Amino acid sequence: MTTPTGEKTIRAAIVDDHGIVRQGLRALLTRPGIEVVGEAESGNAAIQLAETLHPDVMLLDIRMKDGDGLQSLPNIKAVSPQTSVIILTTYANPAYLARAISGGAAGYLSKETDPDQIVRAVRAAAAGDDLIDRTLLLAALSHATSDSTPPPTDLDGSDVTIEPLSERESDVLRLMVQGFSNSVIAETLTISLPTVKTHVQHILQKLHVSDRTQAALLAMRLKLVE
Questions:
Q1: Which whole-number Å values give the CA distances from 120 to 70, 113, 127, 177, 222, in the listed order?
Q2: Parallel, antiparallel or unpaired: strands 57-60 and 34-40
Q3: End-to-end alpha-carbon separation of the chain, Å?
Q4: Distance between CA 172 and CA 166 in Å, rounded?
Q5: DSSP state of 34
Q6: Which strands make up the sheet holding 107-110, listed edge to edge?
Q7: pTM value > 0.70
Q8: Using CA atoms, how far apart are residues 100 and 95, in angstroms rounded to an integer?
Q9: What is the reported pLDDT for 140?
Q10: Closest CA to 60 of 73, 77, 44
Q11: What is the pLDDT of residue 218?
Q12: What is the spatial distance between Cα 212 and Cα 103, in angstroms, rounded to a whole number?
């Protein structure tokens, strides 16, 4: 489906165990260019929804009955890799954020955030843009790579064959690890935004990960950049 201007309509899904929250988010997202295609009230139901509908973006709560969001996140990404998942929660701490990143989340927002920011986040996630605050990202990466945090089974590098990165790809990855967005990377390296996006895609392919935050986490674990 496309909008009257020819742009693709963003297909969104909402997962929260509180009906009033789902109702509010549906009302918030019901606007030109966004269509809410499904709702779920548990982590397990979210997996089924992702497998059936393959939404472009999913807003996912953490603490829910029948499997919470962070537990279900890797399975959601497994059945629908193209779905960008935004964690929308009241629990904002580095441990949760680290799990969200390692599980493949594209963003992490507080339920207290400005409603317009949620809409902007949905549009950004659908476009493949960076959504996690740089300070939070660095805190999460630090937490995730500490000795006290067991590595995720899919990001510990044990079964990953890393393809060599070009010098420019290494430059881009180094800035990704620092939490910079594509636009800032483009400005820093004096290259175009489309070129940055191409490098990012090549990096994801070579590292065998699905998004930039997982690439940053893996780079930290395997010390791919200095």
A1: 22, 11, 11, 23, 33
A2: unpaired
A3: 44
A4: 10
A5: E
A6: 34-40, 10-15, 57-60, 84-89, 107-110
A7: no
A8: 9
A9: 63
A10: 73
A11: 82
A12: 12
The rounded distance, in Å, linking the Cα atoms of 197 and 207 is 15
- Are the beta carbons of 172 and 185 closer than 8 angstroms? yes
DSSP letters for 64-79: -SSS-HHHHHHHHHHH
Closest CA to 136 of 112, 162, 116, 107: 107
Within 10 angstroms of residue 82's Cβ, the number of other Cβ atoms is 10
> What is the amino acid identity at position 16?
D
- Whose tokens are 């807003």? That residue is 59
Q: What is the pLDDT of residue 159?
A: 53
Residue type, 60: L
In this prediction, residue 133 carries a pLDDT of: 60
Three-state SS string across 97-148, please? HHHHHHHCCCEEEECCCCHHHHHHHHHHHHCCCCCCCHHHHHHHHHHHCCCC
Tokens of 217: 């986490």
How confident is the chain (226 residues) per 10-residue block, as mean pLDDT? 68 95 95 95 94 96 84 93 89 74 82 86 83 63 52 46 89 86 88 92 89 78 78
